[in-house]
Structure formats: C-alpha cells, structure tokens
Amino acid sequence: MPLKEYKPGTAFPGVIGRTADQSESAWPEPRRAKEGAPNVLFIVLDDTGFGQLGCYGSPINTPNLDSLAEGGLVYNNMHTTALCSPTRTCILTGRNHHSNNMACITEGSTGYPGYNGYIPFENGFLAEMLLEHGYNTYAVGKWHLTPADQISSAGPYDRWPLGRGFERYYGFLGGETHQYYPELVYDNHPVSPPKTPEEGYTLNEDLADRAIQFIADAKQVAPNKPFFMYFCPGAMHAPHHVPKEWADKYKGKFDEGWEAYQEKTFARQKELGIVPKDAKISRHDPDVKPWGECLPEEQKLYARMMEVFAGFLEHTDYHIGRLLQFLKDMGEFENTLIMVISDNGASSEGGPTGSVNENLFFNNVPESLEENLPLLDKLGGPETFNHYAWGWTWAGDTPFRRWKRETYRGGVSDPFIVQWPGGIRARGEVRTQYAHAIDMVPTVLECLGIEPPTVIKGVTQSPIEGVSFAHTLGNANAPSRHHTQYFEMMGHRSLYHDGWRAVCPWPGPSFAEAGKPFGEPISAEKLTELDATGWELYNVQKDWTENENVAAENRPKLIEMIATWYAEAGKYNVLPIDARGVLRLADERPQIAVDRTRYTYYPGTQAIPANAAVNVLNRPHSITADVEIPAGGVEGVLLAHGGIDAGYSFYMKGGKLHWVHNYVARALYHVESGEKVPEGRHQLRFEFEVTGEPDVASGKGAPGRAQLYIDGNLVGQAEVPVTTPLMLGLTSGVTCGSAPGAPVTPDYRPPFEFTGKIYSVTVDVSGKLIEDKEVGMRMVMARQ
C-alpha cells in the first residue's frame, strides 16, 4: 500500500486518534525529482578566449571538448561580463552582475548597490533552485564568489558554496591557485592535496577525481536521483602549470608567432562556420609588439610560454574527458545536459613580455629577459608562477579585438558548447542567436520543466533577468529573444541592441592610443566628455568583428544606444560608474577581524588567508615562538607565509633556528643561529629591524637586519638588502607548525611539520607600515 504524503507546510491529511490503531499516518513529501529528469553539468573554463579551443579553430588539441561540439551545438554569439566573478554570478543566478552586487571581483568591492560583493539571497543560485526539486548539487573547483573578508575560518559561511545550495564542495575559494600546491577547501574546511608534485599531483586530476567521486557516491545509493554539477577547473587562469611532457607536445608549434596563430585560426574558423564568411579579422593590436620585431631570445621565450599554455589546455581537456567518460560508463551521459563556457576572454595580465613569476608584476619588480631565459625549461613546473605575453592573448581572442576586462567582443564573446544527447537531436551545428551568461539558468529551467521559484529558504526571489534560449536547441533558424544587453567593467562600457553594438572604451581603444594605463579614474566632467565624443558604433550584423566604427554617419542611432545604456544602467544598479581600478583598494570595507598590532597563532589550525593574516612587509616586526624541545632535538616550521614565488619562513633544522626571506624567487636571504636550541621549554624569537626606506616603485621593499634570539640571547644576525614590497605568496597564507604549500625555501620539503611542541607563536607589528594602495589594487585585479 503506497504511503500517504503531503506537501510540507500544508495540513496533515491523516487521522489522529487516541491510539495508533485509531489513527492513519501520512508523511511529509520528500523532495523528489521528476521521473527521468536530466542531470545538469556546467563546465566553466577560466580566461579562455574565443579562438583557443579546437572546435573554435585553435591548433590546440581539445578532443573531448571538440567531441561535445561534434555531438551537440556550438554557439558563436554567447557573451559574458569580461571578468571572472561577475560572469560566474550570472551563470549561477540568471541575473546581471550588477544586480548580483558583483560589478568587479570582491577584492575591488565598493559601498554601493551593485558593487559591494554581497550576492543578494533574493537572487537564488541554480543549485538552490534544483535542490528544492530533488537534485543532488555539487560544486568542484574555482569559486571566487565569497567576500574577501569572509574567506577564513572565522566565517561566516553562508556565502561559501554550501551556503548557496551546494551539498558538497571541493576546490579553492579565491581567484587563482597554485596547480601543484593548491589552497584546497573541502565543504567548509581546508584540506591538503592527496599527494605531492613529486608523486604526480596536479589540480586538474584532483578536481576530476573528486567530481567523479561525488557523483558515484550518490548514484550508488540513489541511481535515479539527478545531479547538478558546477565544474570549474582553475584553467586557463595563470599560473599555467602543466607537466613538462604535455607542453613538449607543442615544441616548435608557435615559432611563427602570434600573427600567424591569428591568421590560421581565423581561416579555420571560417572553414568550421564559426564566423561569417564575410567577417574580417581584427586589426593588429597597437599594444602588441609585432612578432618580427621581437629579438630571437624573446621569440624563444614567448613561444615556450605558449607551448606551456597549450599543454595546460590539452591537459585540462583530458581530465574533463575523464569526467565525461565516467558519465558514459555509468549510463548517465545521454541524459545529461552539458553547457561549457569561459568566464571571459583571454587574459592580458602577463603584460607585453609575459612572466615566469606573476608575483614580480604584483610587487612592481620589472621582468628581465636575462633572468627569465634560464627558467625557460622550468616554465609550467612548480617552481614558476607563469603567464604568457599578451600577444598570445590577442591571438587567443581571434577574430575579435582586445581581451579580458574590456567590453569589446574580445573580452565578452566566449566559447559556448551545449550537448544533451537525450534532449537535442542536432549534432555538430552552429547556433548564431544572441545569448548571454544570464540566459543559462532560465534555459536549464525550461529544459527541466521547472518554474523559477518565488521563494527560497523563506526569501522572496527577484525576477530572473536572462532569457531562455531553449527554443534554439532544436532550431538553427529560431529568432534571438535576447534583444538588449548592457556591459560595464571598470568604466569600459558597451551595449548590444538588435544587431548593433555601441562601445565606450576606457581608457581608450588601446593603452597605446589612450596614452593612459588601465584603472585611470573617470570624473563626472570626463564622463560627460566621453558620452559626447567617446562612444563607437558597430553594425555587428555586417561588421561581426567590430572593425568599422560607423558612429559619425549614424549619430541618431548612437544617441539612441547611449540612452538605452543609461536606461539599463538605472535598471540594474550599474551607477555610479567607477573606473578606479587601482584605487578601489583604498576604500574602507567592513571587516570580520579588526586590525591589531599583535597576532597569535597556534599549531594544528587552518591556514590564514592573506587578507586576514598579519602583514609584516615594510615595517619592523618580531616573531616569538613559545616551544618545548624534546630530547634529541626538533625540526619543522614555526611560522611561514608565502611560497616559491615569495615569502618568509621561521623554522628549525639541524637543531638550529633559521629564518629565510624569499624575494620574489630572485634571491633568498637566510640567517641561522650559531648554536643549537637545547632541550626544554624556550622562547625563540626573530626580529626584523628596518634599516632603510622601501622603493616600492622599483619593486624593492624595506631593507633590514634579521636577528635570531634564544631566550633573549642574540644567536645570529644578517643584513637583508631588499625584501618583498607588496605581496608574499600569491596563493599561500600564514601557517603555524607546518608549511604544506609550495615551499618558501628549498631547505625543506612540505609540509615540514614541527616535531616538538608549540604553545603559541606571536607576531608583533606595532612598527610603522608603509603602503602603496595603487600597486596593491593592481595586484588583486589580476587574481580574477
């Protein structure tokens, strides 16, 4: 006899008598998916340009993503916001990024609606919606949607993945991470990678393993229960890390340079029908040095950087393929709706010369060809934190102009693949309808036959702002339903409306033409001037790649487009326009932890992210460890911050006390005690005495004198001519009692746990701090 059920919140339909034999039971109806409901898989790539996947004309091998395109649909008119976190909010909520209060990344948030970085709970995530309809929900990989001050063990956790509808999570919460030594979070707590780089660890493999495990865990218990998985490898964001054999597959493949890549990719795109036959290739970017003008040594380095990027992308594709093959092996692939997208165009954050260590750029240290060339064979390995030169960025966005962070098509037009073998008959077809990342949620809901919820967890929901493109899945000739879309990214604005694009580039069409860098503020007076003379107009029905500015001959149309942009801006919280990319860091924000002059840390605790950790740079400071030394001596880390790319470590080895400063992987400054630490309880102390001024503009932090003390007695000292000026390790926080991440020094291997007893480690930073806000913001803006 079937159980009687009723919806929670409605009246009990059974009978309650004086005893059970006089009563009739009924049960609250469990959340149950419709019979045959499909699984949903979102694969979100990072910093992957329109012309970087094989199925979009690239020479890079991406057979698994290509197979999805061959068995499904390729969209050539999908758009994003031009930046990571903003796009990801669109993908997950179906609302615009300013409606999600994510105008920028959370590190660049400001105190205005649309900009504060707190995604409203009335803008429900797809995970929250599908959870209510009987789905399992998983997030794996990059997150970068939690306010920066809330990414620590102090929480709060309601804006972490498990707080926004995902039942399980494994990945990293920030914008980027070391691919061999990632800062991993499992659900709501940090964990260490399951093996070391020496044992073959890569993040790509680890994320695929975990995604497979999550699905298998549930399917072996409830095989008919569908899942939603949000799978976001850190690729192709820097660092471009990949085992050498993968990069070596591409040796010599890019020796002809970025112009040749662009031309050949464009030709293949036309052959594939990805771009219109009459489309023109974008102009040579004024910021990109012609390949023929590069020195032979530069060409050698730049070509290897691209070989590493290509190997990294193929490696990523391989592990995506493992996930897809698992779905096939368990019989779930046919009934899985798969959408693949990149969060923005290719990244220009490597600058004109690329980098072997991105932390050089973040610390204002100039790149040196002479110093970088010897590291050529190490590119892609754990000792580098590399990014290619922006000539490859321009080529990677073929056929469009410009790149990530800008709202020309190179920044906002991205690869998009849809496959659903059981729900879409079309195979290997191109779709040309206009779409935006906000359209993914309503499309999924329509495919699943689910109405957008009016309430989630007691919170009344805002309207979905995207438009379903489900009608295009089976009809190549279906009309576009998304007619108007605004774009704004740090003052760079554009608008699409029924085949036209108006663009107001800031600081200009290129940095060379503008004579200004990224992040130049816009005053009210300047905005008035821009609205009068700074807008460009393109008829993208005829000029698909934005080559011919027709603003002068279509002034009435341009005025109409500008007015529409402002109407959309008012509707979606886009104002006030804020182009202060490098200055937003100076804005005060609410903080979970207040600044203080003494920080106390304990062993066995979670790593402290940089934004919540003590800052010892450019100031006198001391580190004092209260320890117990057993008979036979000890070794291990007392306190460390940073990694291979920059950092410091206070540790014991060989019975002696040590301190080392890694100056952006250019130099190691080391001091050790002249005597061993005896058995018993002791106070071990490091002091840094500043002996000169920092030169932040030249990438040089304050010099000083490093001193070691045992129970107040000086036992070692050394001069430190230069320190890291702005940022220690890009992905490693402060750890006490061990250093599980990329090691600051080759003097030990991770995790190098302290083998004695640590009672506490206290850092005193009561000395004066010298800051450079502008350079600091440039640092966080590249971590998207």
From TrEMBL:
Residues 38-450 form the Sulfatase N-terminal domain. Residues 1-32 are annotated as: Disordered. It comes from the Archaea. PROSITE patterns: SULFATASE_1, SULFATASE_2. Keywords: Calcium, Hydrolase, Metal-binding. GO terms for molecular function: hydrolase activity; metal ion binding. Belongs to the sulfatase family. PANTHER family: ARYLSULFATASE FAMILY MEMBER (PTHR42693), BLL2667 PROTEIN (PTHR42693:SF43). This is Arylsulfatase.
